[in-house]
Design goal:
Layout lengths: L8 H11 L6 H5 L6 H21 L3 H23 L5 H14 L2 H4 L7 H16 L18 H15 L6 H18 L5 H21 L4 H16 L1
Helix pairs in contact: 3-4, 8-10, 9-10
Length: about 240
Amino acid sequence: MEEKKRYTYEDFLEIIKILRSENGCPWDREQTHGSLRPCMTEEAAEVVAAIRIYERTGSYENLREELGDVLLQVVMHARIAEEEGLFTMEDVVNEVAEKMVRRHPHVFGTVHADTSAQVLENWDEIKKKEKAGKATAETPLKEIPVELPALTRAVKVLKKADKLYENQGDFQNALARLKESTAEIEALGSAAGEEALQGPVGELLLAVSNISRLCKLPQEQILADKIDDLIERYE
């Protein structure tokens, strides 16, 4: 492919195809779905970092670049899948487009949803119908990916457990559990050792996660911002 002043989406697909070809790049040819897993995690994190930079500085160049890197990962996986005879990038685009139309009946259909809460309720119901009849080896809670950051996963598990099994309590109940865990940790003291403290510290973190869930707080982002504040305070 000749060098251009501006490339199209179709050009990009062709570039990846060439890189994966026999006469392409040795590194790109060696990649598999498994080998690229760390790359996707890192690139997604860098997009989140770029959003933070944009919100603080107004500079968008980094965000544009990092979104491109995530797109690269998506196209690489799709290209590998096509070589394996599984699906193509066009299939990926078609499936997500179908999903967006299907899960937004208030936009593309006749369903009414005037609030975000109604939209999310409809979304969950549609997801249930989509999963009905599909074979899965996971239980409802175990199907929440273990690869998620622990704070994000905690909220998802608590929310689903609330719906399917047992109510996880209101704000006051979560606050009481937080106080109980804090009191237990205080009573044990730092000399108690790692094994003795793990349980109550875990309960404390789970109670904080439940409070975040009930108050609709993005705890992962809140903690990340607080860490950044700490770094800035010292450096």
